[in-house]
Amino acid sequence: MPKLTLIGPMFIPSRGDKPTGRPVSFMTLLSELDRIGTSYKVVDSNAYNHIPQVGRPLSALWVMANAKRLAVSENVSFHGAGPGISRIGGRLLRYTQQNGTHLSIRVFGGAFQKYYNAANSREKQRIEHVIRNVHAAFFQIQEQVEFFKSLNPNTYWFPTNRKAQPPSARYSGDYARRFVFVGQVRPEKGVREVIELGERLGPSYQIDVFGPMTNGVTSSDFDGKRAKYRGVLSPDKVATTLANYDALLLPTDYAGEGYPGVIIEALSVGVPSIASRYAGIPEIFVDGESGFLVTPRSVDDLVSTVHRLEHQDLYTVREQCLRRFQLFDSAEQTQLFLQRLGVS
């Protein structure tokens, strides 16, 4: 019997998966477990998501249908969000309790507390039952830890995390007026404001945009603009790409935002972010020291903050970024995760 079974969303490019936050975070955990030699079994909760229209519910139904078989490990850890916590988590909890094994849950993103508050009384009861009875509950942002820990004393912070980068990968150049957006290229992430920023700043600034285009954004949005679309980055190229720029731009108000992994990646190479005062983002860095907060999707705020950056001691800002990253180092966070599960 395996000591640890992990159930969560995998990122598999060969089936057309996009490098979005939850799968990349889950794969970061698997990579770190491989690095330290921890044995585990993995179950992909995104197994059928590539099938148009029916893929997501089919993936969830597959996990639920196989919950009894999956609940035999000494430790079962389900990584999900939204209704998956009560439905898949609830089904897994039933069988782990029958088997005398442990279930933990890890909740992705910053929207779960809103989901809980908006839920009907029956759904709230399901969520509370799961959180109250799991061996451990992990949340991505500290605000949610504080909100839910009254249900279970074994409630912990498990932030978005990334591997540390070698010194050779870090940003070390002089200020060059180079800025970058990396993420889903969609209106809710503030990409059109980033495009407008390029028009406002003028030709002496460079703004590059990377990521999959979605929700109505197309290459035509960049036609004739100073901001340039540069395609999609594979997850292993994000940190090294960020290291070529003075700052990351992320003026998002995306509803599912928690701790955007790209901000953590930027910290890992000493690059500050100009990002929204929104969701869990203010928890990630210290405003004015290791990053800069702006009003979501405000071009005026972006312009003034870019100009503010020109008068900063960038060497000190970069050092602050690297120090702040230590909170989000995948090596440290994975060890804490295993300790709290009781897995050696």
CATH architecture of the largest domain: 3-Layer(aba) Sandwich
For the biggest β-sheet, the strand order reads 2-1-3-4-5-6
Which runs of at least 5 residues are low in confidence (pLDDT < 50)?
A: none
CATH superfamily of the largest domain: Glycogen Phosphorylase B
SSE order = EHEHHEHEHHEHEEHEEHEHEHEHHH
Gyration radius from CA atoms, angstroms: 21 Å
Model description:
- This protein folds into 2 domains: 4-161 and 330-341, Glycogen Phosphorylase B (Rossmann fold); 167-327, Glycogen Phosphorylase B (Rossmann fold).
- It is globular.
- The longest helix has 17 residues, at 83-99.
- The protein has a 6-stranded parallel beta sheet with strand order 2-1-3-4-5-6, sandwiched between helices. Strands 9-8-7-10-11-12 form a 6-stranded parallel beta sheet, with helices on both faces.
- Strand 5, helix 7 (142-148) and strand 6 (155-157) form a beta-alpha-beta unit.
- The chain is 40% helix and 15% strand.
- The chain is an alpha/beta fold and 344 residues long.
Summary, kept brief:
The chain is an alpha/beta fold. Helix content is 40%, strand content 15%. α2 (55-65) runs parallel beside α4 and α4 (83-99) packs across α6.
Keywords:
alpha/beta, globular, 6-stranded parallel beta sheet, 14 helices
Could you outline the blueprint of secondary structure elements for this entry?
Layout: E1 4-8, H1 21-36, E2 41-44, H2 55-65, H3 67-70, E3 75-80, H4 83-99, E4 102-107, H5 112-118, H6 121-133, E5 136-139, H7 142-148, E6 155-157, E7 178-182, H8 191-201, E8 206-210, E9 228-229, H9 238-242, E10 247-250, H10 261-268, E11 273-276, H11 281-284, E12 292-294, H12 299-309, H13 314-325, H14 330-341
Parallel strand pairs: 1-2, 1-3, 3-4, 4-5, 5-6, 7-8, 7-10, 8-9, 10-11, 11-12
